[in-house]
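does this look right to u?? oxidized coenzyme A version
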Amino acid sequence: MAEVREARVPDIGNFSGIPVIEVLVAAGDRVGKDQGLVTLESDKATMEVPAPFAGVVRELKVKVGDEVSEGHVVALIEAGDEAAAEAPGAAAPAQPAAPTVQGDAPAPGSQEAVVSAAQPTAEADAPPPPAPSGAGPRTPPVAFDATAVQPGTVPYASPVVRRFARELGVDLSQVTGSGRNGRISREDVQQFVKSVMAGGARPAAGVGGLDLLPWPKVDFSKFGPVETRPLSRIQKISGANLARNWAMIPHVTQHDEADITEMEAFRKRLAEENRELKLTPLVFLIKAVVSALKAFPHFNASLDGGQLVLKRYFHVGIAVDTPDGLVVPVIRDCDQKGLLDLATELGEVSKKARDKKLGPADMQGGCFSISSLGGIGGTAFTPIVNAPEVAILGVSRSSMKPVWNGEKFKPRLVLPLSLSYDHRVIDGADAARFTAYLARVLGDVRRLLL
Ligand code: CAO
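got this back:
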């Protein structure tokens, strides 16, 4: 008989006492290395505990609702092929570690089930049973921007309560939960509806005291054929963050243009010499942003109550478009890295993001974000500040334009820049100075050496 070994919670950053919200396997299941065993969800991040080796699950040491920290034993696994061969279903191929997106449907293992299962109680609408083991490919250790998700942005309620709210057209984000950790019960929804119908209480004031009308409930099928698709888990979480940031930060967007004719010529030469790398304008933008953050330190800052925290490090978040939604991995210490290093790292994090392999640590600690749509098109847009940062640079597609040089029009390659900023921290004049500075540096990249 092969050796039985412990599968423990790995290093999960600064988290401890994280609830188990889903048990993904059962005793007797055969698991592949890195296959998810259980899902943990704090109020800031979701992660899976992977099997450290292949084998057969002999015993589960945790159940839904248990709280675990680094080093906690979650299962005993009989290691090795021999054990796997004995297990029922051994002929089936091992579940791959990184195939699906979690929570695309309101079914066990979905966002709805996951969120509600984080708050187990003795109520009738108790958490759903764990997802059946071996029921299809497992989620990769998908993780979200732990710094960006704030407690309370995703309403806590069971699937039954969610269904009930949907039937009544109630937006759960407007309901105040009376249960533990703000969990919303059926009674809370009923109470909410009563108060709205009575014309007294408006829908519960949301984050920051917003007093908004309920979301319009429309039966679109009355107007033509429709299809309903659930939002991905990443879309739900990033959507909650974007909504909060848009509602709470007084945004202004400053638009500018940079003449990158010479920069492009240099970039192309460099790309030719380094064909193994994908050297796009974005790496020059990262360097230019670092230079601008040094020149304008209050752009490298965060609001903390009545104080401004100024950062002395230069970690830049890059918005990456993935099939499941937007994620923002962070490239660290960009001030200490050259263009080629940044190109390598950008390629790595983009791939990791698209392969759903980013962990919480990959998305923490950003000072400033860049959202580049330059590879796609457009002339300007309004990026949303990635709180608690205070500014974000949007980049659109460069194009040749006639530029007046004082004597005649010359064809120049012009890059559109759109800087959104938190007007509580940054004044319009400084924003204009910041983008003018960026344009100057990008117009003559030798300035990056200064
Ligand atoms: N102008 C003209 N061409 C540009 C350009 C620009 N501003 N930026 C990039 N390009 C070119 C690149 O050079 C590349 O050309 P080649 O194929 O000839 O090499 C092509 O467009 C594709 O670039 P890319 O988008 O793959 O690479 P990137 O380094 O510019 O960006 C990444 C990487 C991960 C940021 C990008 O792929 C991405 O996901 N962008 C979307 C971000 C997003 O969704 N933002 C919106 C968030 S809401 O605020």
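The first strand starts at residue 4 and ends at 8. idk if thats expected tbh
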